[in-house]
């Protein structure tokens, strides 16, 4: 591999992993050797090596392959003889990247950051931030406006007004996006601020590693020296006693020093099973905001924004009116799934060179649409069926045996079996604690009646359509 090749690969990696990740993790790598399909790099610390291997190893390998270098594996190790030049001695740093920063504006950075970091500073380095997760790309709607406003407030800096900021919500609703946006914003406003973002799992990993290497004092010092600590998916440390203990002390030390803490989790602090009482109550001291499930308007807004982006990527590709509305209506599970659907749709349409029509979307996204269909909840089914037959919602779970009530109840049982992935005992529980055999009987009854009662089967078609959106 030539100096020029590695330089080009690094340029590609900036685009792939984002500038912050590049500067923190990739730039310090030194190419050492390539033999028998193994590309070896030296790294400043073992931790750095582990991190790069786990998070960027495959990116690096793929980019090397794209450049025409046959690489089956990449390895990272601390240099044994740092003074000795690496095997490709002429290749320490690509000229375009750091010797002539002016030639490459994407890699210029403040002089303070450009100075070599001491080893412990490298250990402090934040987990990789996704360059796309900024406030600019975060679409705000009713379900997330409070979380967004609180995140913005924290990112603006100034006096710490609520500590910690605790963001919670279901899968794929934008918690990580908001956390990265805060980290980007703070770093942009105050380049000197020591912002440490990591997942709770990484916190534990680093804690265990410090214990193993007998480096616990430096671990404590490092974590207590940050200006902003951001821990993602804190539910992960539930049930992990020593990690919780350490987290608690770190948390207290930072709050005492008036340093900002931002935490995310998949549920509210009090609802995280296995989380110590004292930690849960500490977490409740600041501002707790939740990201609600998306509504139609938010989903449409997100789709419009992403479609705009893809239009730039696939110029000439047309998208028919109504397609985004259809997707916003049908894919209600979470934003990650929504994004995945759009990505697939654009990629597929560009491959086959066709306009994105409703028909193409239905074809290409059949599996996602089917999976989304199953997301209808039993409560929703009960509500719609009760409305349709003009009975009270409480009658769905109540004991009344009158046919006027019992039949709609069986219809709701049947639809719950058809449209959700719940088991019969689970459905039974939602219908006032009925036994699973009662549910089975109800489902069978409706199946039999549908064959002979056209009114009932019309009702079911109608209800189904209503529920599936
Ligand atoms: N309001 C939004 N505007 C734009 N993109 C969003 C929004 N909400 C979520 N996304 C996108 O959806 C994807 C999933 O979001 P993110 O990873 O932040 O979810 P999360 O809540 O952290 O989920 P998990 O609990 O699985 O970690 C990301 O690509 C993110 O950019």
From TrEMBL:
Keyword line: ATP-binding, Cytoplasm, DNA replication, DNA-binding, Lipid-binding, Nucleotide-binding
Highest taxon listed in the record's lineage: Bacteria
The keyword ATP-binding is assigned to this record: yes
Domain Chromosomal replication initiator DnaA C-terminal: 377-446
Binding of ATP, residues: 172, 174-176
Segments for region (Disordered): 87-114
SUPFAM superfamilies reported in the protein's UniProt record: P-loop containing nucleoside triphosphate hydrolases, TrpR-like
Residue ranges of domain AAA+ ATPase in the record: 161-291
Region of interest (Domain IV, binds dsDNA), residue spans: 350-469
GO BP terms, alphabetized: DNA replication initiation; regulation of DNA replication
Region (Domain I, interacts with DnaA modulators): 1-99
Domain free text: Domain I is involved in oligomerization and binding regulators, domain II is flexibile and of varying length in different bacteria, domain III forms the AAA+ region, while domain IV binds dsDNA.
Cited function: Plays an essential role in the initiation and regulation of chromosomal replication. ATP-DnaA binds to the origin of replication (oriC) to initiate formation of the DNA replication initiation complex once per cell cycle. Binds the DnaA box (a 9 base pair repeat at the origin) and separates the double-stranded (ds)DNA. Forms a right-handed helical filament on oriC DNA; dsDNA binds to the exterior of the filament while single-stranded (ss)DNA is stabiized in the filament's interior.
Subunit structure of this chain's protein: Oligomerizes as a right-handed, spiral filament on DNA at oriC.
Protein name according to UniProt: Chromosomal replication initiator protein DnaA
Gene: dnaA
